[in-house]
Every structure is written in structure tokens, then in C-alpha cells.
Amino acid sequence: MTRVKRSVLFLMMCVTLLGAFFLYSHTAEAAGFAERAKNLTAIEGVRISTSGDKVRIVVDAADEVDYQTKTLASPGRVVVDISNAWLSPKIAKSQSIDSRFAKAVRVAQFDSNTVRIVVDTEMATNANNYDVFSLTGGSAAYRIVMDFGNLQKSTGGTTIAVKKSGGRASSSGEVKAEKKSTETKSAETKSAETKSTETKTEDRKTKTTKVSKGTYNRSPGIDGKRIALDPGHGGSDTGAIGPTGVTEKSIALRITKRLEELLKKAGATVYMTRTGDTEVAKDGANASDIDELQARVDVANDNGADIFLSIHLDSFTNSEVSGTTGYYYEKGSEESRELAAAIKNRIVKSLDTTDRGAKGSNFYVCRKTDMPAALIEVAFISNPAEEQLLHSDTGVEKAAKAIFDGIKDYFG
Predict the structure, then answer these.
(1) Starting at the edge strand that comes first in sequence, how are the strands of the sheet with 130-136 ordered?
(2) pLDDT tens sequence across 332-367
(3) pLDDT per position as a tens digit, 236-285
(4) 41-153 is classed in which CATH architecture?
């Protein structure tokens, strides 16, 4: 065999071995992903519809998922990260949108456990022009819906910047937007909501009410009730920060501690998730987000609380956005919705804030508690006027008293 033939044969063997190596690596990687995917939820579709008033993007999931939303500028984008999920290969990775409200949507497997949805839109600069919320049932087991446009004319609403996983905020301004649509309510609708909150039926005056997770006391009055209070954030987690540097964690704690005093004076037993500037989980700043949130939930569940209330302040990139919102678990009890609405109504009346509604959510602390639970965004710390009000002794007193009155309305 000539030297040339030997060289050609050697080269062919190298190419064959290299091809086999890459084929094996690809097969092994695919097998490894398939194994991991057994514990992940499939993202099965991304659908787009347009009208003169809005663009709607619907993400279909095979099961309920947690997700986080954030906005980016220059150019404007809304980003939704879906946790513990994998992207079906049948989904188009990029779709153009022929609308003035959004230009394109891109989807990718951001990492081994996260699917990222990016929408190119300038609507992200205004909280009144986009909404991100979840729905169950219908064409998919679980859907994440993103609306962009003139939402006050449609079934969409306003997006409110809240905290990562319902508890911790990131320094990048990450927001959690798990909620139902929040169209502007007419006076008639607001009146009906207030009436439903204040009306007490005979069934609700029984000593205890059974729910899927536990038993809680819904008898009239605060005396004798067991109430779990959760001042949002704490320790290494400042929460949102206002224009003058006031932190959400500090105001939330001040309001909650004053509320604790009012409730105890009325005869309630109060369980605080924190009483100082600390984390709640035993590992402190080293705890994961889920461990921190679960530690807060455990305070309520382990003590058999009759209600759980998490107190926060909202934030958004647009400093003009303002108002009060009550959140409850979207698939939870009617009592949770009534609790969120009752407290929200009282705060709006006392602080004269914009009524942003009582909304369904997927927040961990509302979803994992055994009793009626609500997360209240008292006002926007990013709004200079509302920051100034809530940083004052007068504002703290008015907020605490309003929440106390809302709890009284709930129990009747």
C-alpha cells in the first residue's frame, strides 16, 4: 500500500470515529434531556391573535407552571420565564406580529429547566398597556396569556409589578404577574364587589368551615381568631425601593407590626412570620426562594391560622402608576377572594388610592396555605406621593387601621 493510500485510509478512519463520537454525544445528551423532561412540564404551543384594540399571545402548557415576568427597555420587551418546563420542538422559535402593539414573539429553552418567552413591544413602558395572567381549562390544561394594547377597552387590564415568586424581588426589576384580567371596573361593578364582601350568609356564620386543605374559623368578630401576618421580604431581600431609597421591607414591617397591635387588642392571636429585619427560613440569606416562601407558609399552617395575610408594596418602572391591589389564589376558595377584596376596599377608602381590583394569582404564599389567604399590595412605593405617604407615621397608621377594618369586614 502506498503512502498516499495509507494517509487517505487513516483520514477516513478519523472522520468515521469523530462522527461516531458526535453521534454518541448527541444521543447521550438527548437521552439525558428526555430523562430530565419527565419531571418538567411541556410547553406545547404559542398562539397569537390580533384585533384593533390588542394583541393576545397564549402559551399552552401541559400542566400548571410557575412563571416570572420582567420588562426591558431600549428596545422594549416583555420577558416571561417559565420554571420547570421544556419546549416542545414543534413550536416555532420566532413569530412576527403585524400590529402596532407588538412586533414579534420569540421562544427558547433558556436553560435546562426554564423556557423563556420574549415579546418585542413598546407597551412595556406603560403599566396600563399590557397584562400577563394565567388561565386553566379550555384548549390546554394551563395557559399563560399576554395581552398588549388598549386594554381598558377589552378583557385585559393593567400589569402590576410584584415580587419574584410572590416573595423575593430581584435587582433587575423582575416582576411576577400572575393574575386574572383586570379591566377598569364601573361604579356598578365596584359596588357589587363591596356588597358581596360585606354580605354575610348564615353558612358563613357557622363556627368552622371545611375546605380542601384544612379547617378555619369564620364566625363573626375578631376576638379569638388566629391570624398569620407576613411582612413581605426582609433581611437580605429589600423588596422594591422607592425614589428616595425607602425599602419595601421596612414599610411592610412597620404596617404589619402596627396591625398586630390592633388585632391583639381586639382579642386575636397573631402569628408573625418575622418581627425584625430578617429572613424567615432557617438558612437565612442562603435559603432558596421556595424555602423562604415555604417558611412563611409554615407559620400559618403549623399554627392553624384562620386567615393568612401577606403585606407588600407594589413597584413599577413608570413612577406615575399607583393604587392598591388584593390578590388571592386563582383556584382557591371564595373566602380568599372575599378576604382580598375586603381589605383592598378599606385601603382604597382610607388612603384614597386607585382601586386596582381583587385579582386571582398563582402566588406561592396564597397557593400553599391551608386557610383563606391574601397578598395585599398596599400602594406603589415607586410612586413618589405614595412612597412619601407610607413612609410617614400617619400613612402607616392609616394603612394598618384600614387592613384591620378589612379583616373585621371579612369576619363580619
Answers:
(1) 85-87, 41-50, 54-61, 142-149, 130-136
(2) 899 999 999 999 999 999 999 999 999 988 889 999
(3) 999 889 999 999 999 999 999 999 999 999 999 999 999 999 999 999 98
(4) Sandwich (2.60)
Domain range 187-411, its CATH number among 3.40.630.40, 1.10.260.40, 1.10.3470.10, 3.40.50.1100: 3.40.630.40
- φ/ψ bin of 323: left (φ > 0), alpha (ψ from -120 to 50), beta (otherwise): left
pLDDT bucket at 381, cuts 50 / 70 / 90:
very high
Inform me whether the pLDDT recorded for 200 exceeds 80. Answer: no
CA distance 127 to 385: 18
Cβ atoms of 140 and 268 within 8 Å: the answer is no
388-396, Cβ contacts within 8 angstroms, sequence gap of 24 or more = 388/244, 389/351, 390/246, 390/251, 390/255, 390/313, 391/242, 391/244, 391/246, 391/251, 395/351, 396/251, 396/254, 396/255, 396/258
Give 193's Cβ-side CA count (13 Å radius): 22
Select from 142, 144, 82 the least CA-distant residue to 114: 82
Whether 57 and 119 have beta carbons less than 8 Å apart is answered as yes
Instruction: Give residue-wise pLDDT tens across range 275-333.
Output: 999 999 999 989 888 899 999 999 999 999 999 999 999 988 788 989 999 999 988 89
Q: Is 238 helix (H, G, I), strand (E, B) or coil?
A: coil
Type of residue found at 402: A
pLDDT of residue 253: 98
**Dist. CA 331–CA 198, nearest whole Å:** 22
Ranges of each domain in the chain: 41-153, 187-411
Q: What confidence score (pLDDT) does residue 10 get?
A: 67
Higher pLDDT, 177 or 324: 324
Question: Identical fold at 41-153 and 187-411?
Answer: no
